[in-house]
User: What shape does this take?
Amino acid sequence: MRGGPLSHADIAGALQPFIVACWNGRSTEEMPADVREAWLAANPGGRNISCMIFDPKGKLVSSFWPIPDTFEVESLVRFMKGKIAAAGLGKPGPKREVRLPAAEGPGVRVILKLREARGGKIFNYRAPVVETMKVEEGEKKALRYPETAREVPAADLRRWLEQFYPPAIMDSSGEVPKLEGTLTLTAAGKRQAILKGEVRFQLDDRAATKYKGTLEAIVTYGENGPDYTSFRAAFEGMYPKSDAKHNRAMEFKMTGLIESTPE
Amino acid sequence: MKNLILLLALLLQDGEIARVEGRIKASRPPDDELGFYRHDWAPSLKDAKARAAKEDRPVFFVAVTNISGPDTFFTGHC
Assistant: This one.
C-alpha cells in the first residue's frame, strides 16, 4: 500500500480533504477495540486488508478491499480514486506539502529507500520509509568533537543504523540481532568532522539475511563545546533477497539518509 | 613550506566535505517519491475520528492484517 497507491500523487489529491490513519498487525486479537469494531463492520468477508471511509461524525460510509484485479499501480490508483470519489465526502484538492515526521526535541530522522538493482518492477519497496527517534546521551557522546581522529563502533549508533533494514520482510520482526562495523571520526573543516565506515547487518528473518553498506556523515559542532549541532549521513548498501516463486536471487540497492532534527 | 602543507590539508578537507555533502544531497528522496507523507496523518483511528468531528472532515482508514498469510509473519501483509 505504501509503495503503491498511498504514495501516488493522484491519491494525495483525492485524500486531501481526509484525515488519514492506519493500523497494521497480525490478527483482530491485536486490534484496539475501536479498530476491531470498525473492522468487523467493514470486512465481513474476512480479507486481509480493508480500506474504510468514515463521515465527519464517525459513521462508516464505505469499505473496500483495495486490490480489485492486478497489482499494477495505475490500476490500483484508478480503483482507489473511484472508491474515494464514490463516497461523496470531499472533492480532491491540491496536494499537501510533504511533512516528514520528526521526534519531539533533539532527534534524528532515518530515511531509507530500495530499488531492485537490475531495473525490476517490484514497487512495494520503492516508497521511502521514514523513522524518527530522540537522541540519547550515548549517541551524543560517541560523536563528540574528535580533537584527534578516533574509531567509533557502529554499535554506538545502533538505534539509528538498525533502521536500515528493508520494509516488507514479513518473516522478520524488524530486529537486527547483529550490527557490526567500525567507523572513523576525523576532524575536517572548521568545527566539522567526517564519520565514515562499513556497517554489517544480520536480520532475524528465516534466512538470517546478512547485508552491509557504507556510511559517510558530516558532523557539525558549535563554536564551543564537544557536542554536535548537526548530523547528516548518507548510507549505501545492497540487500540480497531470494524470490522463491520465480526461483531467482535479487539484489536491492539501499539508499539511506540520517539527518538530525530539528533541522 | 609548513604553511603550504597546511593549506593543502585544508583544501583536501574542504574537498572531502564537499564530496560527502554531494552524497548526502543525492540520498534525499525528491518530494515526488514522498507522496505518502503528503497525507494528513493521525496516529490512530480514535485520534482521526476525534479530529474529524472537530474539523468536520471525513476519515480514510486502512487496516492491514495477516489473516490470510503464513503464521511465520510478524505483521500484516498486503
User: Anything to note?
Assistant: Chain B touches chain A through 57 residues (CB under 8 Å).
